[in-house]
Amino acid sequence: MDSDDDYFEAEDESSLVEDEGRVSDDEGFLGDTMIVPDDPLGSGSKEEDVYPFVCLSAEQIVELMLEILNEVNDIVNIPHTTLRILLAHFNWDKELLLEKYYEYDGNPEQIFKDAHVISPFKLKSTCKTKGQSSRTDAECEICCSSYSRSFMTGLNCGHIFCKGCWSQYLRTKIMDEGMSQTIPCPAYKCEIIVDDEIVMCLISEKKVRMKYQHLMSNSFVECNSLLKWCPAPDCHHVIKVEYRDRQPVKCQCGRVFCFECSESWHDPVLCLHLKKWLKKCDDDSETSNWISANTKECPKCQVTIEKDGGCNHVICRSQTCKHEFCWVCLGPWDPHGASWYNCNRYNADDAKKARDVQQRSREMLQRYLFYCNRYMNHLQSLKFESKLYALVKRKMEEMQQLNMSWIEVQFLKKAVDVLCECRQTLMYTYVFAFFLNRNNQLLIFEDNQADMEKATETLSEYLERDITTASIREIKQKVQDKYRYCDSRRNVLLNHVHEGYDKDWWDYLDL
Amino acid sequence: MTVPRRITKETTRLISEPVPGIVAVPFEHNARYFQVSMCGPKDSPFEGGSFKLELSLPEDYPMAPPIVRFLTKIYHPNVGKMGRIRLDILKDKWSPALQMQTVLLSIQALLSAPNPDDPLQNDIAQIWKDDEELAIKTAIEWTRKYACGD
């Protein structure tokens, strides 16, 4: 699918130059996109190389685990089950495991002890001493019933229980407590860890086996910094990268997300700021609107006060404050008392100071609301994405009735693709700007942003229009020009931000 | 509702071979609920007191630990206001190989050796650390006041 898009871009590159005369610095960029066909958004920044990643299915993760197991086993040669526990103990860091393993000079007993497994080298001496007793029946300590020895089993620590209790125990640990690599022997104070072989042997219920395997893969993925689950709901794919970075990756299911923070791809804003922003939005987006409209802060203790009636003589109810002030001018009430409601003394110092503080906090709020509203606006528009695709699909069919070929109408789909990408970028530009102090580079950024926003809205408008036979060619030309322009403006904006990151242009506010 | 063999066996043992100082009686209509009375251990501030507890066995016992709670008020850093007990084997260190009897014995041992470093009641633990004499005095007082009735 990517190669298709690139084909169009390559073919139509010349037409770009005609558009609105702002192309000189954009031209080089399109050329670059063609060299980067695997970029999941079709628009990485131009200097950077392709960010290499692969998408793995659940089975492939298991294979990957096996691969690592085999690799290490070639060197240390201990049973797979034991090795798996050791690797889990070292968070699947095989180098660390090997380093520690040989650090003890060929005597890795301490490692086995730390990882809560019985050393395979000691096994022959300790194992099965219990099993040797001559009685044929034994009592299971858990259910207090006697069973033949063949129905009793245990780990290498020698504690044995009946198979029924074992499977119930494992089931509880797996299903209720979500444990996989750290389930200990059921005996009191025994910390020897249950290996995967015995679990698979004792658990027959499919649901539990599946959950166990999933938990195993999960702990493998979680402790491997080069692997990330796709954040889409019900998607069980994993993205594997070669080095960790803030880069977009695209899962087989279609979700594009940031490898660093797993949020939707959020260029140009940094993960850190996005996280702060999302938290802020969660906390107070709706509430702050109301607060802004209906309340004021006590000029002394800054507690938020709603006046729901009564006169302008307000007494702060905060137990430690009790400040009396005028609701209108926010100055202390005392001078008002003499001749009632006499706050025409505009320059009274106290009142002015109080208003300043008030104003600053209002300004902060206003500023946040400004960015928040714009962010939300694009977010809302994006939510109609699927609707828009459906609408465009219908239009494309209509156009094919009007003697256009299938390939000729593909530009409409491409236009929606670009529109959505632009909206997403625009959305995050407001988060980006929210955290910045004013400087000249920010002014340039805002110009870029305004330009891109204007173009994006126009493109959106074009896509809503009706198509008639007469206008069809003309519309196609217009739409194509516009989406190319949008795309190029988007790249200009992103490159400018990236350059700023490299050159330390951005001056962050302490929010 | 049938009672698992293990519970029946444990109950029989609790009654036939009781541990000195601990009496556990199953509720008449509920074999999973026990009323326990525990004597304060010798040489502890709880000596001479008789403490009532309740013990109930959850549905998935012995995979899940029994739920035990003091009914008698007690001045102890590891026992909460509502009688909850902070003891590792009642939580994450539980093993299905443990039994009611072992649990009750551990609780008795906890009375002998309060652990203010892992408290359930911070204020009591603080006093226990700062002024052990005062803490012990208070514990003795409480024992006399709440645990020495009929």
UniProtKB/TrEMBL annotation, chain A:
Its EC number is 2.3.2.31. Residues 136-347, 140-189 form the RING-type domain. Signal peptide: none annotated. GO terms for biological process: protein ubiquitination. It comes from the Eukaryota. Pfam families: Ariadne, IBR, IBR_1, UBA_ARI1, zf-C3HC4. Belongs to the RBR family. Ariadne subfamily. This is RBR-type E3 ubiquitin transferase. It comes from Ciona savignyi.
UniProtKB/TrEMBL annotation, chain B:
Gene3D superfamilies: Ubiquitin Conjugating Enzyme. Residues 2-148 form the UBC core domain. InterPro entries: UBC (IPR000608), UBQ-conjugating_enzyme/RWD (IPR016135). This is UBC core domain-containing protein.
